[in-house]
Amino acid sequence: MSSFSPQRPRPLHLLAAFASGGLLTFAVYINAEAGRYGGALYSSWLAHGTGTIACILVLALLWFRDRPAVTALANRAPLWAYLGGISGAATVMLTSTAVNTPLALAGTLSLGLAGQVVFSLAADQWGLFGLPRRRLTLRDAGAVILITAGSLLIIFVGMGS
C-alpha cells in the first residue's frame, strides 16, 4: 500500500464537500417524495433512469466534442467499482423508505452520516478497495461517538417537538 501524507484541504474543497452534502439532502428528499407516491423501487428506478438519460446525453456531447475524454472511458475499472450502482440503488430505496417514517429527513440523514463515518473508518483501517491503510485513533472514536450522539439528539429530541 502507498503511504498517505495528510494535507490541509483548500477552501474550495471544503466548500465542494459541504455543497455535496446539501445536494445529497435535496436528492434524498426528492427520492423520498417519489417513494411516497410510487414506492421505494419506483423511486430508485426514477432516480437511476433519469441519471442514465443525463449520462447518455453527456457522453454524446463528449463523443462529438472531446474524443480523448471518450477514449479514457475505455480504461477498465476494477470489478468491485461496478458495485456502486447496486449500492446507489439500495441507498435510494432505503432512504426513500426511511424518510417517510417518523425519522423524517434529518433523522435519516444523520443516521446515514453515522453509517458513512463508521464504514469509511473501517475502510481506512483495513485498506478496503485499494485505499491506503490508516491506523485509527481515539479522535476517530470520539468523532463516531459525537456524530452518533448528535443523530440520537436529532431523532429523539426532534420527535418530541
UniProtKB/TrEMBL annotation:
Transmembrane segments: 12-30, 42-65, 77-99, 105-129, 141-159
First and last residue of the signal peptide: none
Any GO CC annotation of this UniProt entry: plasma membrane
Pfam hit, one: DMT_YdcZ
Cited InterPro entries: YdcZ (IPR006750)
Keywords, in A-Z order: Membrane, Transmembrane, Transmembrane helix
Protein name (record): Membrane protein
Taxonomic source organism: Devosia chinhatensis
Taxonomic path: Bacteria, Pseudomonadati, Pseudomonadota, Alphaproteobacteria, Hyphomicrobiales
